[in-house]
Amino acid sequence: MRIENLSFYYRSKPVIEGIDFEIEEGEVIGILGPNGCGKTTLLRNLNKNLNPKSGCVMLDGTDLKDMEKKEIARIISSIPQSNEIKFAFSVREIVAMGRMPFQEFLQGESKKDMEIVEDAMEKTGITHMADRYVSTMSGGERQKVIIARALAQTPKILLMDEPTLHLDISAQFDILNMVHKLSREEGLTVVIVSHDLPMAARYCDRIVMIHDHNIHAIGKTEDVLTQENMKVVFGVKADTVRDPDTGKIFVRLFDSCTSSEKRT
Q1: In whole angstroms, what is the distance from residue 19 CA to residue 44 CA?
Q2: With bands split at pLDDT 50, 70 and 90, how would you rate the model's confidence at 11?
Q3: Which residues pair with 28 in a beta bridge?
Q4: Measured between alpha carbons, how far is residue 49 from residues 69, 70, 77, 138, 170 in Å?
Q5: How many CB atoms sit inside 10 A of residue 122's CB?
Q6: Count of CB atoms situated within 10 Å of the CB of 195
Q7: Closest to 93 (Cα-Cα) out of 150, 128, 134
Q8: Is 80 exceeded by the pLDDT of residue 207?
Q9: Could you tell me the domains of the chain?
Q10: Which residues make beta-bridge pairs with 57?
Q11: Is 104 helix (H, G, I), strand (E, B) or coil?
């Protein structure tokens, strides 16, 4: 996927301007920035839920504006911020909804569809909960169901908007470990919108850091999560340390910065 000079406005107010970067096959890429910087708006432009004011999103060489929503949904699946489900659907019924882009009107699920549904539940570890009502489940369990529904679309790209929001710490690790494993073993490309610096450092191969409606920094995680970038964009005093066992970096947060400190 290639994002070329992408801009989006709400009325006359710019939300993102001149965004330009490429998403590589099989990587986990984080879109980071503080609340209100345009991260979710950018993500919603990546699957045609929003249409840009200018620029374009190219998917395998084709502009999204020239593709039907159903065609896009066969390649890109999305995990929204909220996983609340108000109606009395079973886990299997929710996951089966992921097959809708492949079905004709009122067709129903085929044998192949249900095999894919079962496979998606197995990959997310929820097969034993297939007949439970989603409304009775915990937040972490529901999030696994939503991810299984997304996997049932058999996507190449998975877009995740704050996937660990409102989850306890154990569930956060559980969800992101699972997604990272799917990326490595299935070749799934994952785009994660977040403002969680430690989680991004742990799971992302590359980071796009958004600030003032544009890209402030982009590159490998260790190159983007510098003291200066975290101070300017997030207003925090932080640094990174490399884990001697895994070789990965992790973020240490110390304090917030004053306005004058952010400018220096």
Answers
A1: 14
A2: confident
A3: 190
A4: 9, 12, 12, 28, 31
A5: 12
A6: 18
A7: 134
A8: yes
A9: 1-75+156-225 (3.40.50.300), 84-154 (no CATH)
A10: 3
A11: coil
- The pair of structure tokens assigned to 149 is 């529904």
The position carrying tokens 């200066």 is 228
**What number of residues does the chain have?**
264
Place of tokens 């060489």: 61
Residue identified by tokens 């085929």 is 110
Dig out the tokens for 33 from the structure: 């920035």
Find where tokens 């990959």 sit: 123
Place of tokens 């066969």: 74
What tokens were used for 213?
């409606």
Q: What is the DSSP track for 141-171? A: HHHHHHHHHHHTT--SEEEEESTTTT--HHH
Q: How is residue 107 written in tokens? A: 């067709």
pLDDT, tens digit (0-9, with 9 covering 90-100), for 97-156:
999 999 877 677 889 999 999 999 999 999 999 999 998 999 899 999 999 999 999 999
Q: Look up the pTM and report it.
A: 0.92
Stretch (H or E) spanning 5:
strand 2-10
Estimate to the nearest angstrom the gap between the alpha carbon of 185 and the chain centroid. 18
